[in-house]
Predict the 3D structure of the following.
Amino acid sequence: MTGKTLAEKILAEKSGTDARAGDYVEAAVDVMMAHDVTGPLAFQTFREVTGDDAELFAPERTVLTIDHHAPADGVRAANNHNSVRGFAEEFGAVQYEVGDGICHQVLVEDGFVAPGDLVIGADSHSTTFGGVGAFGTGVGSTDLGTAFATGELWFRVPETKRFEVGGDLQDGVYAKDLILKFIGDVGFAGATYDAVEFGGEAIQALPIHERIVLSNMTIEMGGKAGLVEPDGRVARFLAAGNGDVRAAEVATGLGPDADAEYDARFTYEGSEIDPQVSKPSNPENAVPVTEVAGTAIDQLFVGTCTNGRYEDIKIVADILEGERLHPDVRMVVVPASKAVYRKALEAGVLGTLVDAGAIFQTAGCGPCFGTHSGVLGDGDVCLATANRNFPGREGSMESRVYLASPATVGASALYGEITDPRTVETRRYDDYRVAEEVSS
């Protein structure tokens, strides 16, 4: 019998079966997560399932965040926040407050997720956790509410598509460019319910904060999970993290077998991939930046669970240092967590961006889902480091959103139009590897 993919290995271990693609398994879940938008329905389901004897299966591994409407932008949001607080206090769940950060960021940042884990979250971008070698996936609030009580959930073991990038990337090309290229090549539904593995020399050379970008946006091609093979860098990253909750449990030697079967393989040479931009209004509309260079923009958005880490923000600050935003544009910067915010403050990055004319907001999701500070008006054009650009995603249905890397956003801020980052000075990954990316 052939070997296994990363997804098959993790689901086999968590289900205690010889799990293969297409099998249905009941698997033990390591970490469960909900936020202020998806939590209330999960809480309701949990109470219905458990009745009068309600207890969380694993309160120390049930994580609740207040990050989407943070701070509250209306009474309904404020009531949702209170629902999260009340549930956490009643049942002992781990809870993050307004301004602490985005769910996906804090779970990785504080060491809740380790390689080989099975992590579910009531948010589609829970695929993020594959950046450290976990099987992370989004589930519905009702499924999550049941798992809160049982610690288990049914899964269909997915087929796997593998993306390999050999060689070295060009200067000015980052993980965001890779994932946009992949999504553009296979389409928005091209990996529906598939696991996606990322490998090859260029992928393994990526620091952790960049690997997370690949896994985060796997859902934009329909993927069930997106996994990067964990290595020593992951172990060092987790061991140096803020919370260090589960660093001691880091798996070693976890990787796909050489004879694993894949639904499809896609191979690339890193030096041949250009900076990418996804045109409105679907991430699959990815093209080389040169095809849209010169497009006038009104707003720049730096942040989200995709590219809101310190290293992402610093790339933009490095480009803008000593400069001002083009007078025709505005920039909204939203750190992914309080730790990112603090580091940006202490390192002078925040000051550089404020001096350039940018607006800094409370750590959280910001305008990414179109209901909070920084939303777009009719006819506005935005270049964002976000993950989605559907009609109305960041405000008006009549606005247009382009997706790009922080480097492309930073370069474009200088000229008020989409600009190839290779035309300005950017820094490579090694400049951000301080103590194995502790800050990520």
About this structure: Residues 75-91 form the longest helix (17 residues). The chain has two domains: 6-269, 277-432. The chain is about 30% helix and 20% strand. Confidence is low (pLDDT under 50) at residues 432-440.
